[in-house]
Amino acid sequence: MSFLVKTSYSHNLASTAMLMCSSFCPQIPNQFRRRPISSFPARPLFSVSFKALSSQANNASTKDELPARIGFLGIGIMGSPMAQNLLKAGCDVTVWNRTKSKCDPLISLGAEYKSSPEEVAASCDVTFAMLADPESAVDVACGKYGVVSGMSPGKGYVDVSTVDVETSKFISGHIKTTGALFLEAPVSGSKKPAEDGQLIFLAAGDRSLYETVSPLLDIMGKSRFYLGDVGNGAAMKLVVNMIMGSMMASFSEGLLLSEKVGLDPNVLVEVVSQGAISAPMYSMKGPSMVQSRYPTAFPLKHQQKDLRLALGLAESVSQPIPIAAAANELYKVAKSHGLSDQDFSAVIETLKGKLQKQQ
């Protein structure tokens, strides 16, 4: 399998060329098992220049180099800044969200609003979706007034949600019945990287669609990988988030143990940041964790969901992941104590003993 990564860019953009580049499966409602076929007429695949764009390119691109009309479904912690970066780059963006008010800031920046995923897909050349979980991803893509009903040959659907392999393949199959193209491209990164256009895209699926939307991925992210067949992107994202969740659980233990034996946990954060186990996550989250503050960048409930999906993925290939399994139990306890919507670093609260004493 070949892995293609976005090139880094010099100040001379004119000389920069783009590189051409678990088994958990949620119960799929019966109504989604029939594959509706769009009756929309076929039209040629939208034209786009393959000049690579950097997130720091100061909008050097023009609309002519991008798909003419871009849809974005799911305007939450991640989707909102991603769509905003597309708007700032001069893209024609149409948005949808279950709660319309979340779209208002984007509408004020020039985005158009449609009342259903179907309408967005029907009116756009390529549609992105950033949804909370596999169930939402299936519903938005394949449910009543879903994306599938608005797709047709010449269009593309890019799901940047974090889902399991089977869900991604299920959605891909439905999209392809319409003659449209499908790409999964889950992202590594949370709220701040999304705002700064520093996400990492883990793409798999139709390579021609990957090449077409690469300039858009470059607006929203700092790097991208093409991983081959549908499912590989989903699997890579679950492995990455499995590691991240386990790291945070272990870091939480270290912070509390250092304090319990009379050490300054703030000094521990500094020591860790200068050693072989240094990670940006520790330096970024550590100081606020010491102060028991957990501003939400990546909701704890999503981290637990990803660990759950990773456990299913591991089970499908008979791979033991005992550390991730233990971490998952910790996040489940955190959820049961009402920490679901706080940042995943709030998992440290489950180790303090206070929550258990409240029962």
UniProtKB/TrEMBL annotation:
Give a short account of what the protein does.
Answer: Catalyzes the NADPH-dependent reduction of glyoxylate to glycolate as well as succinic semialdehyde (SSA) to gamma-hydroxybutyrate in vitro. May function in redox homeostasis and play a role in oxidative stress tolerance by detoxifying glyoxylate and SSA generated in glycolate metabolism and GABA metabolism, respectively.
Which molecular function term from Gene Ontology is one that the record holds?
NADP binding
Domain 3-hydroxyisobutyrate dehydrogenase-like NAD-binding: start-end pairs: 231-350
Chain ranges of the 6-phosphogluconate dehydrogenase NADP-binding domain = 69-228
| UniProt-recorded name of the protein | Glyoxylate/succinic semialdehyde reductase 2, chloroplastic
Instruction: Tell me the PANTHER family matching this sequence.
Output: CYTOKINE-LIKE NUCLEAR FACTOR N-PAC, OXIDOREDUCTASE GLYR1-RELATED
**Which family does the entry's similarity section mention?**
Belongs to the HIBADH-related family. NP60 subfamily.
Question: Keywords assigned by UniProt?
Answer: NAD, NADP, Oxidoreductase, Stress response
Lineage: superkingdom: Eukaryota
* Organism encoding this protein: Rhamnella rubrinervis
SUPFAM superfamilies, sorted = 6-phosphogluconate dehydrogenase C-terminal domain-like (SSF48179), NAD(P)-binding Rossmann-fold domains (SSF51735)
